[in-house]
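Late entry, written up from scratch paper. The run itself happened at the end of the previous shift, but nothing got recorded in the book at the time, so transcribing now.
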Amino acid sequence: MSGLNDVLAWLGEGPEPLVYLALGLGAAIENVVPAIPADTFVALGGFLTVVGSLEPGWVFASTWLFNLAGALVTYRLGYVHGRPFFERGFGRHLLKAHQMDRMAVFYVRWGTPAIFFTRFLPGLRAIVPVFAGVTHQRFLAVAAPIAVASAIWYGGLVWLGVLAGRNRGLLLDLLGRVNNVLIVLALVAATTIGVWWWRTRHPRDE
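Output as recorded:
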């Protein structure tokens, strides 16, 4: 808790442009390190609009734009380097060619809603854009659902931070409750994906 107090103190007293930048970078990191959720940075930014001098609109814009940019960077990396990685070396043992083909069919059929809904799920929201790139999905078909879903989610989190007002404990409690539900949903989805991966390891399972 003392570490959180130090962070809040720095964010509350630091130069506003630097604080917006820090919140944005914090929201973007999730796309590379899923264990560091962007949600906390967004909600704390909303909280600091009440206890500090930050503006909700700028908190939303910085966290949303940085997170969106991070997701699209991972999508592009998957687009350029994904197939070569899975076609040779260690990668070919993780995802086989026929699994890649089935995944591409899934993205063509269900890609937009899948990308949209997984943006609300911790962990999965960082992985789905990568494999959209690996299967060479169109840029707009990936960017649009990410942008809309992230705008809805981060707008709600900023509002949650503002609603919590000066009660940091309430903010963390509400954020924890929401994330617990989302983590359960993400685990269910991840288990489903794991079962699919295991059952489709061999072409005969087609």
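The mean pLDDT is 79.
(Scratch paper discarded after transcription.)
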